[in-house]
Amino acid sequence: MSPEEPYGRLASGTVGIDVGGTWLRIRTDGGTERRPAPSLLNHPGRSTAELTDMLLDALLPTAPPGGRVVVSLGAAMNDATSRVYGSAPLWGDVRLRRDLVGELRRRRPDADWYVHNDVTCALADFAASVAAEGHRHVGYLTVSSGIALKVADLPARRIVVDGNGLQGEVGHLDTSVPAGFPQLLDLPCECGGTGHVASLASGPAVPRVAHALGMSAFEPTAFAARLADRDPEAAVLLRVITYPVAQLVRWLWTTQPLLDLVGIGGGVAEGLTGHFERALHEHLEGRTNYSDGAGPRDRGAIRVLRPGAVDPIRGAQRMADRFLDVVTA
Fold first, then answer.
1. Are 17 and 313 in contact (CB under 8 A)?
2. pLDDT digits (tens, 9 = 90+) for 173-198
3. Alpha helices of the chain — where are they, by DSSP H?
4. How do strand 31-36 and strand 23-28 relate by DSSP bridges?
5. Three-class SS state of 164
């Protein structure tokens, strides 16, 4: 049986849920319902306790008695122990002290709960679609309401994490800004810091970057249309927000010699697909140091994914079925 075959639709008695910073998607065999996520992005006046209560209240009734629920959770967490640490889009700059997954299991013990980090789930789905291509290590980078990376060792079918169960929280690393844009140096990040990768490249950052660049009446929903119309302001904004993503890719190329393929998805990247891809490669094809001239880079090693190409709910099913194992280094 191919890795794709069982995953065309949810099995009977299974509910799939994707918890993002912007949207909550609940899928059953009858279809998918999309609701605004119970997040700090959508409810800026609510406390962390209120937001976590709202999330549990949304998840608990979805579980079918005797069934299973597979959850892709947009938060930094230990996939092996289910400990959730935090999420800037969901809860801001707090470190979560509540056992969310334990509460789900205690309050609805009549269902099986499988909860994994959303980037882990997206990586599992992406890896399943490319596993036959003979790659060694494969990565998935999300550029959405948050920014994060996961890398899998495909031959071993595993994701290696640190002692806290974490890997790839790259959105909160400090970033440089393109030359000539000093006004972008200290933009805020949802985590409470400043000058992070997510301060320039995440979904919530884009309007702030546009404002800092002096763009008048910037509307995120019109961004792709303005790029298609060759709007010069939109073109500058695109070059700026793709710059830190290109820097992340350069870091991966420099430090990960076994990494054969990186898929880039998430709302920002997928919403601007072709434009994002072209701008990213323009950055990557520029020479920044002597190592850039050592040999040609394979454009196919970086894939900006089309909408729907990777599905975190489908990936959550794969993780529940142990398509990839999470192991501590």
1. yes
2. 999 999 999 999 999 999 999 999 99
3. 48-59, 88-91, 100-107, 118-130, 197-201, 205-212, 223-228, 232-255, 267-271, 273-284, 312-320
4. antiparallel
5. coil
Residues, the chain: 329
Cα torsion through 194, 100, 43, 58, rounded to 10: 150
- Residue 202 has φ and ψ, to the nearest 5°, of -80, 165
Sheet of 68-73: strand order equals 31-36, 23-28, 14-19, 68-73, 112-117
Alpha-carbon distance of 134 to 176, in angstroms, equals 35
Tokens 């489908």: give the residue: 314
Give the model confidence (pLDDT) of 254-264 as tens digits.
999 999 999 99
Instruction: Compute the distance between CA of residue 65 and CA of residue 114 in angstroms, rounded to an integer.
Output: 15
Mean of the pLDDT values across residues 292-304?
73
Q: Are strands 137-143 and 259-265 parallel, antiparallel or unpaired?
A: parallel
CB of 18 within 8 A of CB of 24? Answer: yes
Does residue 249 sit in helix, strand or coil? helix
Sequential DSSP letters for 259-276: EEEEEEESHHHHHTHHHH
Cβ count near 223 (within 10 Å)? 22
Summarised one tens digit per residue, pLDDT across range 43-68 is 999 999 999 999 999 999 999 999 99
Under 8 Å CB-to-CB from 97, ≥6 apart: which residues? none
Sign of CA dihedral 238, 240, 244, 250: positive
**Any idea which residue has 């075959």 for tokens?**
5
- Alpha-carbon span 50 to 43, nearest angstrom: 10
What residues contact 64, with CB distance under 8 A and at least 6 apart?
13, 15, 111
- Residue 92 backbone zone (phi > 0: left; psi -120 to 50: alpha; other: beta): left
Give residue for tokens 């899928």.
Answer: 27
